[in-house]
Amino acid sequence: MTEHFINGKRIEDLEIIISSEQIQSRVREMAALISNDYRGKRPLLIGVLKGAVIFLSDLIRSLTIPLEIDFIAVSSYGNSTASSGVVRILKDLEQSIQGKDVLIVEDIVDTGLTLNYLVDNLGSRQPKSLKVVTLLDKPDRRKVVFEPDYCGFAIPDRFVIGYGLDYGEDFRQLADLRALDE
Ligand code: 5GP
Fold this sequence. Notes:
Elements: E1 5-6, E2 9-10, E3 16-18, H1 20-37, E4 44-49, H2 53-62, E5 68-74, H3 79-82, E6 89-91, E7 101-109, H4 113-123, E8 129-137, E9 150-154, E10 160-161, E11 177-179
Parallel strand pairs: 4-5, 4-7, 7-8, 8-9
Antiparallel strand pairs: 1-2, 3-11, 5-6, 10-11
Helix pairs in contact: 1-2
Bound molecules: guanosine-5'-monophosphate (5GP).
Residues 51, 76, 106-114, 159-161, 165-167 line the site of guanosine-5'-monophosphate.
């Protein structure tokens, strides 16, 4: 097998936290649950750019209900502002969500600040319902009380990459979730 390097790291040396097979199987389970909960509805799934793109693409292909998708991009705060919870919208939705069943699709909940902000912001736009699905959750890192409605995996406090999650824009394309220990 050819060695696979990204950003000077040998990918095979990074510990697999959750394998591609585990992810695929859990995403199908979550899709079954969501399809059941939204039966008779046509939810608008809002992917949070860029990390949630791969999760959203896999999730919607296993959903058995009609649906729409849209995307929102928010700034990730630096360490200095993390405690203030300041989040800025870099790219907004293309449409009004008034009266819609909205499901925010996120890659990971860490401090909870991003989703706390998004739920507040989107909640003020009068959706009919508003829920959150996240692939990953690091509950130990919370700075604000936040509980996702659907969660794929709770993980320990380690920095993970792959399956859409990046480190300096690298590693998003990896099929497995791996730990990048500094
Ligand atoms: P929160 O606002 O909950 O602290 O952070 C959410 C965002 O932080 C995620 O959408 C993601 O962009 C980033 N993040 C948090 N933990 C990790 C991680 O372990 N790996 C990567 N790549 N990004 C993370």
